[in-house]
Every structure is written in C-alpha cells, then in structure tokens.
Specification:
The protein is mainly alpha-helical. 67% of the residues lie in helices and 9% in strands. It has helices spanning 2-27, 35-66, 69-94, 110-138, 145-166, 174-203, 208-235, 245-253, 288-301, and strands at 258-268, 274-282, 306-313.
Length: 322
C-alpha cells in the first residue's frame, strides 16, 4: 500500500513538473518590457547622454574659467550621471541577450550589478565634492556670480528635459528610476547654483560657492542612498521593493483547491523582472493545470512575471527536505 502510494506521488510530481516546464517555456516569452519599448528607451537615453555630455563640457569650462567650485561640483555630478546613463543603456542591451548553456538566464542580472555600480560611483563623487568644498571654505575665491547663474540656468533646461524624457520608463526599471532621480536632483541642484550666483553677484559673499557645493553633495547622498539600498538588496536576491511575501502567499492560498503554500522564494532576475518558486498543495490533483493558471495570473498582478510552481497532492511533498 505504501509502495503504491509512493509510486502515485512520484508520478504526480513528475507529471506536474513536465507540465510546469512546458507552461514555463511558454510563459517566459512574456517579458515585462517588449523589445520595442527597450529600443525606444535606449534612443531616449542616448539623447540624454549627448545633451548632458555637451552641458558637462560647457559647465566645466566655465567653472575652470571662473574658479567656481559649485559649477565644477555640478559638472562632476553631471559627468557621473552621464556614466550612469551609459551603464543603463548597456544594461538594457544585456537584458535582451538570449540565454545559453553557461548563463541560463542570460545577462539579466547584470542590470542589478550596474545599478549597484551607479550608486557606488555617485558616493565617490560625493566624497570628492565634500573634500574640495572644505578646502574652499578655508580659502574662498573671487568669482563672477552672474556667469554662474546663466550657466546653471542652462543646466536647469538640460536636466529638466532629461528628467521629463525618463519619467515614463522610471516606473518599471530600477536603473531608469535611479537615472530619473539623479537627473531630477540635478535640476534642483542647478536651481541652487543659480540662486548662489545671484547672491554672490549682489553681495560678494564668495563663501556661498563652497557652501552650495556641500549642499549639492548632500542632495546627491540622499538621492543615492535609496538606489544603493535597493541595489544591494536585489544583488543579494532579496525580495524586490513593492512586493510583500505574506501578501503574495495569501493571494496564492486563497485560490480554489489550494490548501497550503510553502518553500516560497521571491527574487529579482533583473531590474524589471521578478521571479518566484513555490510548492503548492492542492486538494484535487485533477485541478492542477487550472490552479497553476490561476496562480500565475494572480502573481502577475503582484508584479511577478516569472513563476515556477510545483504542485503537490493532499499534503504529500515531492521534496524530501520538506
């Protein structure tokens, strides 16, 4: 009797795994972003890269000419953002590379590593800006406030336009959201530099220049912290932001014929795709296909696009470690 029961369980687990693999193969064609969206976003990013690179050249040139640390700090920050935008483009390209025998998920995970690299790059920029600002506080240099204001005003236009272009894509991609947040912060920083230039032009308080540089560093640090935190969590296969494990488990358990859910794991395959594996216990093995379909629909609503579900019957477990 025990042998027959074990044989039935083995057949049931194997059958469901085969069915799961077939459905999984069909499901993996439905990515969160269509290739056309990816291609369009890459074009937008290249436009942003060219615009910001041109502005970095102008701003750094004026900063050197006027010996303005606030302009040079802002130019350095913008240059780091250009590198960030380039890395995002690389990530969008790599996520489209097909899987192979060595990298069975392709290079999707590289987008998370790029996001982490962006955060570290910005932290380095903060350190350099603060060090130079402290030096300038001790020895303020005479600068032309009106020139600084006009230059930073151009920055508001460039950064504002870039922020607008990235607004749509930032909702679904951590890398693009990081670029969006930094460009939005750059716009605010440019506003600060304009104000500092006006104050310097009217009062001659040259010490305002390094003070604004420190303020820029603080803005960068605040906007970078969230990106660094999210990138570290995803790099360690933590649960992605916006997904609650208990809510996902409850949504699965509430489906018809589901009696339990265990061995539940959720992680990010890339900055746009989330994955899940779970063992699901059902009360009627004949409903396995329908249960799997229902669960995948519910998981998609939870922001999980790539689900691997192992069905178990009546409390039996296909995993000896259960």
């Amino acid at each position: 009797m025990g042998i027959a029961r074990a044989a039935k369980q083995m057949y049931f687990c194997t059958t469901n795994k085969d069915s799961m693999e077939h459905k999984h193969h069909h499901h993996e064609h439905h990515h969160h972003h269509a290739p056309a969206d990816n291609k369009q976003m890459r074009k937008i990013l290249w436009v942003a890269i060219v615009l910001n690179l041109l502005f970095v050249g102008v701003e750094s040139g004026v900063g050197i000419w006027q010996n303005s640390l606030s302009l040079l700090s802002d130019a350095g920050h913008n240059l780091s953002d250009v590198f960030s935008l380039v890395l995002v483009v690389v990530g969008l390209h790599l996520v489209q590379v097909h899987s192979n025998s060595r990298y069975t998920y392709g290079y999707k995970k590289s987008t998370i590593l790029i996001s982490l690299a962006n955060a570290i790059l910005l932290l380095v920029a903060v350190g350099v800006i603060i060090a130079e600002s402290v030096h300038k506080l001790r020895e303020p240099a005479a600068i032309d406030g009106s020139v600084i204001s006009w230059t930073a005003g151009v920055g508001i236009l460039i950064n504002g336009l870039t922020t607008f272009l990235l607004m749509r894509g930032q909702k679904d991609d951590l890398n693009i959201r990081g670029a969006f947040l930094h460009m939005a912060a750059d716009t605010l920083v440019s506003v600060g530099v304009v104000i500092s230039g006006i104050v310097i032009a009217r009062t001659g308080w040259f010490i305002i220049d390094p003070i604004i540089s420190i303020a820029i560093a603080v803005v960068i640090l605040v906007s970078t912290w969230e990106l660094l935190r999210d990138s570290m969590r995803l790099a360690l296969d933590g649960v992605p932001e916006g997904i609650e494990v208990e809510e996902v488990a409850e949504a699965m358990r509430s489906a018809d014929h589901v009696t339990d859910v265990h061995h539940l794991h959720i992680w990010a395959m890339s900055t746009t795709e989330n994955a899940l594996t779970a063992h699901v216990v059902i009360d009627d093995e004949h409903q396995a296909a329908e249960v799997r379909k229902t669960l995948k629909e519910r998981l998609h609503e939870q922001g999980i696009n790539h689900a691997t579900i192992e069905i178990e019957s009546g409390g039996d477990c296909c995993d000896k470690d259960c």
